[in-house]
Amino acid sequence: MSKELKGRRIAVLATDGFEKVELTIPVAALRAAGADVDIVSLHRGSIRGVNLHKPANKVGVTKTVSEANPAEYDALLVPGGFINPDMLRQSAAARDFVRAFNSANKPIATLCHGPWVLASAGLLDGRVLTSWPGVRDDMVNAGATWIDKEVVWDGNLVTSRGPQDMVPFVRALKSHFAPGAALDKKTRAVQSSPQKQEPPKIVLGFMNLFPLPKFKLLLTVGAIAGGIYALKNSGAISGLKRQLDRAA
Known about the structure:
By secondary structure, the protein is an alpha/beta fold. The chain folds into 2 domains: 9-176, Class I glutamine amidotransferase (GATase) domain (Rossmann fold, 3-Layer(aba) Sandwich), CATH 3.40.50.880; 215-247. It has helices spanning 20-32, 84-89, 92-103, 115-120, 136-141, 166-176, 201-209, 215-233, 236-247, and strands at residues 9-13, 18-19, 36-41, 46-51, 54-60, 63-64, 75-78, 108-111, 128-129, 145-146, 152-154, 157-160. The strands form 3 sheets. The chain has a 7-stranded mixed sheet, sandwiched between helices. Strand 4 (46-51) and strand 5 (54-60) form a beta hairpin. Helix 1 (20-32) crosses helix 6. The longest helix has 19 residues, at 215-233. It is globular, with a radius of gyration of 22 Å. The model has no long low-confidence stretch (mean pLDDT 89).
């Protein structure tokens, strides 16, 4: 088995709501290639993945973003998902973490909605990249040139559109993160690719395949809601408030 990334330390910046395949598949490939991979997040313990919007497996967190030192890593991966990058971009510590890699001209790779984090960190002005097509306008408004390609190279930055590009993305990832990789490759682009005319039908169809919540879960939620309603109407809450008022 090839170990072309042996000795390389990779930080994966993610939090709850990461798209499962966008973290687990690249991480497995990086580790199989010999890399030492840390999951860096906003909190300790574990973080929950999703398949689109449906909860998926958890992964363990190695370090929090405040504990991790960018200087100790050779490269950075930022997975996507609808939720994960939106949470990360609101964290000053996460934005600083990403900026540190870029300032040191270390390899960065991201896909899907992951470039949102780079946009909020102020790193996309003048860059060439791709992303999930639905956030194409966010990338352009951040100053980037957006290209509708499976993999886009721009110096220390490699990007892909999403899970549909996973195979070429992982291939590019291992090349980009390899020791001594030249960070001078750039996808040629004069202007941004046009906006999409409609959302992808395959995603809309996939969403419709998800089952409704289990009946037992609905009964549990209903029972809790009913209990709260009964408590409110029993006078217990108002009675407790009167006792507190008298005690004061």
